[in-house]
Design goal:
The protein is of the alpha/beta class and about 300 residues long. The protein has a single domain, classed as TIM Barrel (Alpha-Beta Barrel), CATH 3.20.20. It is about 40% helix and about 10% strand. It contains twelve helices and ten strands. An eight-stranded parallel sheet has the order 3-4-5-6-7-8-9-10. Strands 1-2 form a two-stranded antiparallel sheet. Helix 1 runs parallel beside helix 2. The longest helix has 15 residues. It is globular and about 70 Å long. Bound molecules: NADP nicotinamide-adenine-dinucleotide phosphate (NAP). The site of NADP nicotinamide-adenine-dinucleotide phosphate has 27 residues, from helix 9.
Length: about 300
């Protein structure tokens, strides 16, 4: 497997397996299939609520730990130094691992610097081999790279042919941050799996699928990819992308598909930010009396 050398020298596989939206009951057999197919990098998150199942699949595989690369992400509800530190230990415990290869801040919200300090400490304690962020655009990434004691090594963002993140990539390179794609197929949006241009290029390369052309494009751009599928035949298809090469002309044409817009949501859009905030906003205490409410409103 090709790897990318992170800024701290850690080797990260260029292709891994993502488990977003895989139900806890299904994830163990999906990760088992992925490991059998040959994937060695697994991308989960506290918010996916499937770390335990990922851990069980890893344990039963008997693959030596050093051959695996396991990533998780700290969710906004664990933002801040104490909560983040506790959540790192909880992720390790759920995954049944003594260290994670990579831990990311999942979203650029909340007490990012408190969370980051907890991650720096866990990194120095050997619990995390690399640390990074997710959904940080250039502005937030530059800020963290400038003020953090240990700069982030990875930024995982929405990245596919229709949203190529050129501005972020320019600054990530400048600050030595590896860029990782989430949603390499845009989850099928914008007719990805039937896109006629991808189909045409696929027909030129022994009938490669749109999924394979999309992944190959990102890999040749130096982007780490973590496609998700619950189907073993698709896992195999998505894994078999290292035995052909897109030409420079094909790459240039695919670069022109960039709409510079998200297929999902923009983390700088106030409505999106409020949507995230509503997830973590303190809920009113149903046991609080009217008098207590009155008291606290006068504080
Ligand atoms: N950091 C973040 O905020 C963030 C956000 C989203 C995702 N992620 C990570 O990135 C990973 C990948 O992104 P994603 O899961 O959102 O989307 P994705 O990989 O772009 O697309 C997954 C979708 O494509 C289908 N699919 C996969 N391979 C296919 C193929 N060869 N042919 C046809 N359909 C295929 C899957 O269906 P089936 O499963 O039915 O095959 C699924 O519906 C996630 O699993 C997660 O680990 C991170």
């Amino acid at each position: 497997m090709e790897t990318k050398t992170l800024s701290n020298g850690v080797e990260m596989p260029m292709l891994g397996y993502g488990v977003y939206q895989i139900a806890p009951a299904e994830v163990q057999h999906c990760v088992r299939d992925a490991l059998e197919v040959g994937y060695r990098s697994i991308d989960t998150a506290q918010a996916y609520q499937n770390e335990e199942g990922v851990g069980r699949a890893i344990a039963e595989s008997n693959i030596p730990r050093e051959e695996l690369f396991v990533t998780s992400k700290i969710w906004i509800t664990s933002s801040g130094y104490e909560k983040a530190a506790a959540s790192i230990d909880e992720s390790l415990q759920k995954l049944g691992l003594s260290y994670l290869d990579l831990m990311l801040i999942h979203q650029p919200f909340g007490d990012v610097y408190g969370t980051w300090r907890a991650m720096e400490e866990a990194y120095e304690a050997g619990k995390l081999k690399a640390i990074g962020v997710s959904n940080f655009y250039a502005d937030r990434l530059i800020d963290l790279c400038t003020f953090a004691r240990i700069p982030p090594m990875v930024d995982q963002v929405e990245l596919h042919v229709y949203h190529q993140q050129n501005e972020l990539r320019k600054y990530a390179e400048k600050y030595h941050v590896a860029v990782e794609s989430w949603g390499p197929f845009a989850e099928g949006r914008n007719n990805f799996f039937n896109d006629p241009l991808l189909k045409e290029f696929g027909s030129r390369h022994k009938n490669r699928s749109n999924a394979q052309i999309g992944l190959r494009f990102l890999l040749q751009e130096g982007i780490i990819v973590i496609p998700k599928s619950t189907h073993r035949d698709r896992m195999e298809e998505n894994f078999n992308v290292f035995d052909f090469q897109l030409s420079e002309g094909e790459m240039a044409t695919l670069r022109s598909l960039d709409s510079e817009e998200s297929q999902f949501f923009n983390h700088e859009d106030p409505e999106t930010v409020e949507w995230f905030m509503n997830m973590v906003k303190p809920k009113p205490d149903p046991n609080e009396t009217e008098a207590q409410k009155q008291d606290s409103s006068e504080d």
